[in-house]
Amino acid sequence: MKIEQIKDKLKELLDEKRYVHSIGTMECAVKLAERFGEDAQKAMIAGLVHDVAKCLDKQQLLNCALKSGIVIDNIMRSQIELLHGPAGSYLARQLFGIEDVDILNAIAYHTTGRENMSKLEKIIYVADLIEPSRQFEHVERLREKSFEDLEKAVVMAMDNTLKYVIDRGGLIHPNTIYARNWLILRESGEVR
Prior knowledge:
CATH class: Mainly Alpha
Mean pLDDT: 94
Number of strands: 0
Low-confidence stretches: none
């Protein structure tokens, strides 16, 4: 499916704010891909499609996530919005015929991250947070760091997210903890 066809379908599925966010994420993902030697076409598709499931209602989200094959844990059941990544990966395959595993994983894990993330997964994780419509404390610093050192930017983004969730009394998904720890251990040379 061509990018313009994907955009047209997303306009039907997403509200305007989420569609604008998806375009911004796509544009940031392409820039990061070019900066860090990743396939820009894959980054474009993953960035554009990453939130395809964001506007689904709770039952639709749960159904798509179940069909994606993931194990839905108690944290995801409690914070149903975490399911939009795995559900989006399922919809990317069903609606757009996307079969590239790296693109599908980048969509599936763009909210929680995971241990041993691919470069594309890191790019989509960061692009989702630094696209132009995002406004939060330290976003400019994160935008700068994203083009300097991708792995450190992912850790910085996770730190911001963890603080945000903790401040609001939310649950932290273990994938984020595992991803953050893996990146820090890798930086220290303890993991290869």
